[in-house]
């Protein structure tokens, strides 16, 4: 399960933190966060592997820059948080964020 998916602050100008909770304690989880424009263009991919003792919250910071290091424009974006367990089970949730730069 993937719960309480959010980013704070939202809206933001230079830095936001993605946060979520999960139900897989003491498990190596692959985390994939993707940020898309409203039209569906992928602008940022964040990947990491976590192993938490509890259920969260898991936090990942993002500076509002795309995969090339450029600031992305002001506006509304959609992001996806996906978790994958070592056995291949996945869960994902979509949320929106706003950039005010």
Notable characteristics:
mainly beta, three-stranded antiparallel beta sheet
Number of DSSP strand runs = 7
Strand content: over 45%
Structural class: mainly beta
Report the average pLDDT across residues: 94
The coarse overall form would be elongated
Order of helices and strands: EEEEEEE
Distance between the termini: 34 Å
Tell me about the largest β-sheet: 4 strands, antiparallel
Write up this protein:
This protein is mainly beta and 101 residues long. 0% of the residues lie in helices and 58% in strands. It has no helices and seven strands. It has strands at 2-8, 16-22, 28-37, 42-51, 58-62, 75-84, 90-99. The strands form two sheets. The protein has a four-stranded antiparallel β-sheet with strand order 4-3-6-7, with no helix packed on it. A three-stranded antiparallel β-sheet has the order 1-2-5, with no helix packed on it. The mean pLDDT is 94.
Write a brief caption for the model.
The protein has no helices and seven strands. It is an all-beta fold.
Which SSEs are present, and which pair or pack?
Layout: E1 2-8, E2 16-22, E3 28-37, E4 42-51, E5 58-62, E6 75-84, E7 90-99
Antiparallel strand pairs: 1-2, 2-5, 3-4, 3-6, 6-7
